UniProtKB/TrEMBL annotation:
The chain crosses the membrane at residues 49-67. It is a single-pass membrane protein. This is Endolytic murein transglycosylase. HAMAP family: MltG.
Length: 436
């Protein structure tokens, strides 16, 4: 259109030209100074460390899981909560494989093959030897290997035989201590002295005289009470050998000792020889029999020689000894107040029904009891004491008497105490049996 003025178009403002930012030393310095992308360099350092730690954790987890599985399957105890000990015996000549099989069969081991490999790996094959060990289902395979290879089966154990114990008492004690594997085996060995007679001259003498025949246990009286150190691998026969051999020492010290005793004369103050009565009319075997009776009858050692004097006086007078322990030896009765039926039991041990000494010892006496049997109290011999009985049971004291009337009065006085004591012991035994 002519003459019309055009409105000018607004010009678009140009943007400055944009180029990629280049990182030079100045730029990096500025970013560090102003904190631009501050974490970039830190991440570059931490990333490989974190990757490594994650890998380590994964490996540890896998190894731990695998080890726990292996331990539970092959190595851990069969029963961790069962701490009861079990006797495990390795026989001479048993191989490691056989030992592993026996351990597994005894429910002491989870895997016999692992046991064999571990023994070989640890290099203890030659250190495992035959013997009897105390093991437990709560022991893992490593603890079992350590026990079998430690040589503990060759270590010694202490056993103490108490004076007055019978053969059966000793068998019970040794079995409870783990010193013997079988109570019956021990008792059977004690029934026949043939295998042991050559080791003890008093035992051999009794065997040659034929006096051992008819006894319940031919070794009764010949197992010397004492404290011994024996190997843990010792068999029942080995232990009996030790006890029988010790009897020789006791006999030497007592029977063949000519030691003169002295005492102070109260008037002159000088030493004088003590008058002693020696039972030379008795054989060595009879001394042991008499000593066993003294051991059972006397509650205190100071009464040993007095009890011996009473028995010696009765033997010399042709009286029956009428000793309660001889009446109960075969009956298995342990009480003070015996019934008429118990004292009249007919057997070769019961001195209520037989003359003289019982057929054999009724326990294993101490050296003190044997010395008392050989040397009874001279005063009681001369005074003619013929009787004794227990006083209050727990005191161990005895009441001695010269006449039957005195003795019967003593019995009447103390018998109620014996009966009360027997009832108390019976109740305690009943409660113990019930608790078990």
């Amino acid at each position: 259109m002519a003459g019309k003025k055009k409105t000018p178009r607004p010009q678009r403002q140009r943007r400055p030209f944009s180029r990629p930012m280049r990182y030079d030393a100045r730029t990096v310095r500025e970013e560090r100074e102003y904190g631009v992308y501050w974490y970039s360099w830190l991440w570059q350092i931490l990333r490989p460390v974190l990757v490594f730690l994650c890998a380590v954790l994964i490996v540890i987890g896998l190894v731990t899981t695998g080890w726990n599985k292996v331990y539970e399957t092959f190595l851990m105890p069969v029963d961790p909560d069962n701490t009861e000990t079990v006797r495990f015996t390795i026989e001479s000549g048993d191989s490691i494989s056989t030992i592993g099989e026996n351990l597994e069969e005894a429910n002491l081991l989870r895997n016999r093959t692992v046991f064999r490999y571990l023994v070989q790996f640890l290099g203890v094959t030659d250190q495992i030897s035959y013997g009897t060990y105390e093991l437990s289902p709560s022991m893992d395979v490593n603890a079992i290997i350590e026990a079998l290879s430690s040589g503990s089966q060759n270590a010694e154990r202490t056993i103490t035989i108490i004076p007055g114990w019978t053969v059966e008492d000793i068998a019970d004690y040794l079995y409870a201590e783990g010193a013997i594997e079988s109570r019956e085996e021990f008792l059977n060995l004690c029934r026949d002295a043939t295998a042991f007679a050559d080791m003890s001259y008093p035992l051999k003498l009794a065997q040659d005289l034929g006096t051992l025949s008819g006894r319940k246990y031919q070794l009764e009286g010949y197992l010397a009470p004492d404290t011994y150190r024996v190997f843990r691998t010792a068999s029942a026969q080995d232990i009996i050998n030790t006890l029988v051999e010790q009897t020789n020492t006791v006999i030497d010290d007592v029977y063949y000792s000519d030691t003169i005793q002295y005492e102070v004369d109260p008037e002159t103050g000088e030493y004088r020889e003590v008058e002693r009565y020696r039972n030379d009319s008795l054989t060595l075997d009879e001394i042991i029999i008499l000593a066993s009776m003294i051991e059972k009858e006397a509650g205190n050692t100071e009464d040993y020689a007095r009890v011996s004097a009473v028995f010696t006086n009765r033997l010399n007078a042709g009286m029956r000894l009428e000793s309660d322990p001889t009446a109960t030896y075969l009956l298995g009765v342990d009480k003070l107040a015996l019934s008429a039926e118990e004292t009249s039991a007919v057997n070769n041990y019961n001195t209520y029904v037989i003359d003289g000494l019982p057929i054999g010892p009724i326990c294993n006496p101490s050296a003190a009891a044997m010395e008392a049997a050989l040397y009874p109290d001279v005063e009681y011999i001369n005074e003619g004491y013929l009787y004794f009985c227990a006083k209050e049971p727990t005191s161990g004291e005895l009441a001695f008497a010269k006449t039957l009337e005195e003795h019967e009065a003593n019995v009447a006085q103390y018998r109620p105490l014996w009966e009360a004591y027997d009832r108390q012991m019976a109740e305690q035994n009943t409660n113990t049996d019930s608790a078990e």
